[in-house]
Design brief:
The complex is a heterodimer of chains A (480) and B (352). With 480 residues, chain A is mostly beta strands. In chain A, 7% of the residues lie in helices and 43% in strands. The radius of gyration of chain A is 28 Å and the shape is elongated. Chain B is of the alpha+beta class and 352 residues long. Chain B folds into four domains: 127 residues; 52 residues, no CATH class; 80 residues; 69 residues, no CATH class. Helices cover 16% and strands 41% of the residues of chain B. Chain B contains six helices and 25 strands. Chain B has a 17-stranded mixed β-sheet that branches. In chain B, helix 5 runs antiparallel to helix 6. Classes of the chains: A mainly beta (480), B alpha+beta (352). At the A-B interface, helix 1, strand 19, strand 20, strand 21 and strand 24 of A face strand 1 of B.
């Protein structure tokens, strides 16, 4: 433990703690970002450090300034030049603070003070150098100076894996994510097994601090677990080995009722399709429908409301057009669970457990052809604590590796590698994709490039701890 | 909560992913219309996030590339880059796909006839077709008309970079900032780069729209609901641009006097349906909420919704009119969105 206060690019240093060069005059007032509630990144923070720039000679004084300007140029290039790799970091550690932290520098400025004296005076001695202010525009958060490993796992075949970043791995013991803001995920790697074709990955984060017991979260509502609409003929639970859970709900059109007319297929009530825990399922959620048709075109719409609500009062989602055989996973809607305003109307205000009766209603109509509709399940991707969605890549070639990497300034890049060469670059749709503090999980859902199959899966996620992350703090790190 | 993604031009193949534009696209704003769908969008790129060389390269290569705004994986806007203005050392340069300035398949109609089409496939294979039918006066014969056609092609077949706004000298002025203005347009506009040149016998207007959509290069028929109002397509020798013609048909409504809407949405699919007639949202405490009272995510708001206005002035509902002709309701024709979370709903009959 020792005082650290410096600018550093891995080679050059401006050390504010020593009298040689840029010396902190102990007038520095630290700044801290205001943490927003919506997960967005707060504005970059401006720090002002009053300094005295000392030099043993005019030439030594000039050399100190040249080091500063080199860092200034590097910081600016890192921000605007895609081919610049090395960032400039602003490091701090209190005299007795256990851990050191650093913050990415976006820009540096030097302003000489009015009291700096005669610029052309003889060489500034070490005790009476030129007075100035170093102005640092930095990332709103501090992060650890070293990266930590994420555990490797080998998911079972299926549609999704509820990844535990806090579990033990080959080079990491089980531990909660420390810090006071979400940790930056620096790298994820997915290994694609021979014969399977992954082309889309959805990832959503969830923490115990915000949502309680993480294992009570329901990643999927199985349609066969819901209530089929008894008013319409042809709706039955249907055994299908390629369906999630081995069953789906099938609509066999027999009387043309479904042609161009909307009907409810089934109701996925939380108490029936979920684990029975309501508050552990609260959040903003992306509904992903897994469905297929045997032929023709069907339209499906998810509607959101409560068991017993009139049809007209349901909140209607997007109309999804289905022509796919086999199964496909389709992004339907973003919705909240529960719908009720939690702040205004608490659960104890109510005489009944309304959250248990909240439901997703699957509606459909056939718009052309003579085929049947099969709805398998609704996958529930949590969004409110950060998400990352990768698409537009193709791992048709077996044993490809899918990389997702994130720079200190949140630039996410994803590519598929095979035998040392990139074979595909993926699109990234991400928001606040960080590891929430404490105990957390990432729901990882995967599918083929255009259509999915129940057998598609990964060999592993973060093989031999290929995943890395950096903890982050809004101000001090302490002993974490 | 949105991400802005850039993909290759559709005319060139599969439209592979190119880059994440989100951090570069300063002041990203776009609109969606009930008649038209994904409409226009624009943003700026400055030297704060993109170096000069990279910016010049973007200007040289990105015209016609596909832009998609995503919200948690859902496409909430999609279009192509149709115009860019690069400000470099005090000079402005422009590339554009404006069909008046970019034409790679041309014929000329003259008093005695019309020339055959001539197409610069080196351009249309990259940027897609941009058809022009030029009309000239009495002094043209077939030879002169063909020569004019070839001159137009030579001048306009590619979205060339040209100085715009004049070359102004002001030696004492400070060096101007390097930046790029980017204009995007929904694919509904690309339909106007092709013409309907033949008549079609009267049939259901929805079938006519399906046919016209099928004649476009990048847009396909999505959800086209049946509208049995029977109409012909009679170009009578004056070809119409595809979207102009479709817009006219949407405006007809149906035989019962109901309003219909249509436009190009995600995946370049064209949807056509009767306009919404039921209240689907509320305006409460200065924001749009769904029927459950949950605030809408700004980027996911679509037009063709009826909003019940909490706190609107009480008053009698005048006779006649539609469901939204009520002082407590508004039919939303257009949604303007500016990242990250500013939006404005433009009601039918309201201030634009």
């Amino acid at each position: 433990m020792a005082l650290v206060h410096k600018l550093y690019d891995g080679t050059n240093t401006i050390d504010f703690t020593t009298e040689a060069g840029f010396y902190d005059l102990y007038e520095y007032v630290p700044q801290a970002a205001e943490i927003p509630g919506d997960g967005s990144l707060p504005p970059y923070v401006t720090e002002v450090i009053p300094v005295r720039i000392n030099g043993t000679s005019d030439d030594n004084f000039a050399a100190e300034l040249q080091t500063f300007h080199a860092l200034q140029k590097l910081a600016a290039e890192y921000w605007s030049d895609q081919t610049t790799e090395i960032p400039v970091w602003y490091h701090q550690q209190l005299t007795s603070e256990t851990g050191q932290r650093r913050s990415l520098v976006k820009s540096l400025r030097l302003e000489f003070a009015d009291e700096a004296g005669n610029w052309f005076s003889p060489a500034p001695p070490t005790t009476s150098g030129k007075l100035a202010r170093v102005i640092i525009e930095r990332h709103p958060y501090w992060e650890s100076t070293t990266l930590r490993d994420l555990p490797a796992v080998n998911p079972s075949a299926g549609l999704y894996h509820y990844y535990d970043p806090t579990a033990a791995g080959a080079s990491v013991t089980a531990h909660d994510i420390v810090g006071d803001v979400g940790a930056r995920i620096q790298r994820f790697r997915f290994n694609n097994p021979a014969g399977d074709d992954i082309g889309r990955i959805w990832m959503g984060c969830r923490s115990a601090n915000k949502h309680g017991t993480l294992t009570d979260y329901d990643p999927v509502y199985e349609c066969e677990g819901g209530t089929n609409n008894a008013s319409e003929s042809g709706i039955t639970d249907h055994a299908d080995a390629t369906a999630s859970g081995g069953n789906c709900v099938q609509v066999v059109e027999t009387d043309l009722d479904w042609d161009d007319t909307w009907h409810e297929v089934c109701m996925l009530r939380h108490s029936a399709c979920g684990s029975g825990d309501e508050d552990e399922n609260y959040g903003t959620i992306l509904s992903l429908l897994r469905a297929q048709v045997s032929a023709g075109t069907w339209e499906v719409q998810l509607r959101y409301g409560y068991d017993g609500m009139a049809d007209d009062d349901l909140i209607k989602g997007q109309v999804l057009e289905l022509t796919n055989t086999p199964w496909d996973i389709i992004e339907a809607d973003i919705h909240t669970y529960p719908i009720r305003n939690l702040k205004a109307l608490t659960q104890t205000d109510l005489n009944s457990n309304s959250d248990a009766s909240q439901a997703i209603f699957v509606w459909a109509r056939r718009t052309s052809g003579s085929g049947n509709l099969e709805v398998d399940c609704v996958l529930r991707l949590p969004l409110d604590e950060g998400y990352c969605i990768l698409k537009d890549f193709d791992t048709t070639t077996a044993s490809a590796q899918i990389y997702m990497a994130q720079s200190p300034d949140e630039r996410i890049y994803t590519a598929v590698q095979l035998a040392g060469a990139f074979i595909s670059i993926a699109s990234v749709d991400a928001f606040n994709f960080t590891l929430p503090v404490g105990d957390c999980r990432i729901l990882v859902i995967w599918a083929g490039p255009t259509a999915s199959d129940i057998s598609d899966d990964f060999d592993n996620i973060n093989a031999t701890d290929f995943g890395k992350y950096a903890e982050r703090w809004a101000s001090l790190r302490g002993a974490e | 909560m949105i991400t802005l993604q850039l993909f290759d031009r559709l005319a060139e193949g599969t439209g592979s992913y190119r880059m994440d534009l989100t951090r570069h696209a300063r002041n990203w704003a776009r609109t969606i219309r009930a008649v038209g769908g994904f409409w226009t969008g624009d943003f700026e790129i400055t030297s704060t996030t993109m170096g000069r060389l990279e910016m010049v390269n973007f200007y040289n290569t990105a015209i016609g590339q596909r832009v998609a705004e995503k919200t948690a994986g859902i496409t909430t806007w999609e279009g192509e880059i149709v115009e860019m203005i690069l400000s470099l050392d005090g000079v402005q340069y422009k590339r554009t796909l404006n069909p008046n300035q970019f034409q790679n398949k041309v014929k000329v109609r003259y008093p005695a006839g019309v020339t055959a089409y001539s197409e610069k496939t080196g351009s249309s294979d990259v940027y897609g077709e941009s058809v022009a039918i030029d009309v000239v006066g009495a002094s043209y014969d077939s030879t002169a008309a063909a020569a004019r056609r070839d001159r137009i092609l030579a001048e306009k077949a590619y979205p060339r970079s040209r100085p715009s706004g004049g070359l102004s000298s002001n030696a004492g002025a400070e060096q101007s900032e390097t930046f790029l203005s980017v204009l995007c347009a929904g694919y509904v506009f690309s339909m106007n780069r092709r013409y309907q040149e033949s008549d079609v016998a009267a049939t259901n207007v929805s079938d006519q729209i399906s046919t016209l959509v099928g004649n476009s290069e990048f847009v396909s028929a999505g959800r086209i609901d049946s509208n049995t109002l029977s109409v012909p397509v009679s170009v009578e020798g004056i070809p119409s641009r595809l979207w102009d013609l479709i817009e006219e048909m949407i405006d007809m409504g149906d035989a019962s006097g109901n309003r219909w809407v249509g436009g190009c949405y995600a995946g370049r699919e064209f949807h056509y349906e009767a306009a919404e007639t039921a209240v689907s949202h509320r305006w409460r405490n200065g924001q749009l909420v769904d029927l459950g009272g949950v605030p809408m995510i700004p980027s996911t708001i679509r037009p063709n919704i009826i909003v019940e206005l909490d706190g609107s002035p009480a008053g009698a509902v005048l006779p006649g009119g539609n469901v939204w002709d009520n002082p407590k309701r508004a039919y939303i024709e257009e949604v303007e969105f500016m990242a990250p979370n500013i939006y404005r709903l433009v009601p039918r009959g309201g201030a634009s």
